[in-house]
Amino acid sequence: MTDDLEAYLTLDQQLCFALYGATLAVTRTYKGLLEPLGLTYPQYITLMALWEKDHQSVKALGEKLGLDSGTLSPLLKRMEQAGFIARQRHAGDERQVVISLTDEGARLKHEASSVMASLGAAMGCGLEEMKALRQQLQDLRDRLNGAQDKG
């Protein structure tokens, strides 16, 4: 092996390790921002999806969040117990469960409005830099998903 190749095989040179470390740091930051609201990160993103479009089926919500039913069902049960959402059987199709915001879940939208700005401040990023970084990460995800679909 050449010295150049050896240098690239160190942990600090690996993109995956940098992404992993950044993910852990962002997750810890979100935890601190969401704790005062009584939310976990999965609950937060679930509420965000419902703030965008209320009254979604469990299936549609799972697709939007990228969560399987084994993860989503207990999460929704805890959120219902906390009073953030309501679960109801669809009137036209009893097999479908529709998830809706409660007044408490809707109220949290106002309280959570500062989370993104606080995350940006913790990261030392302005809104435009955060938008650019998010777009780069989404592009990376899409390229990798496209490569897996082809392979």
Descriptive report:
The radius of gyration is 19 Å and the shape is globular. The chain has eight helices and three strands, in the order αααβααββααα. Helices cover 68% and strands 8% of the residues. A hairpin with a 7-residue loop joins strand 2 and strand 3 (97-101). The chain has a domain at 42-107: Arc Repressor Mutant, subunit A. With 151 residues, the chain is mainly alpha-helical.
Protein topology:
Blueprint: H1 3-8, H2 15-34, H3 41-52, E1 56-57, H4 58-65, H5 69-81, E2 85-89, E3 97-101, H6 103-112, H7 115-123, H8 127-150
Antiparallel strand pairs: 1-3, 2-3
Please outline what is shown here.
The protein has a domain at 42-107: Orthogonal Bundle (Arc Repressor Mutant, subunit A), CATH 1.10.10. It is 68% helix and 8% strand.
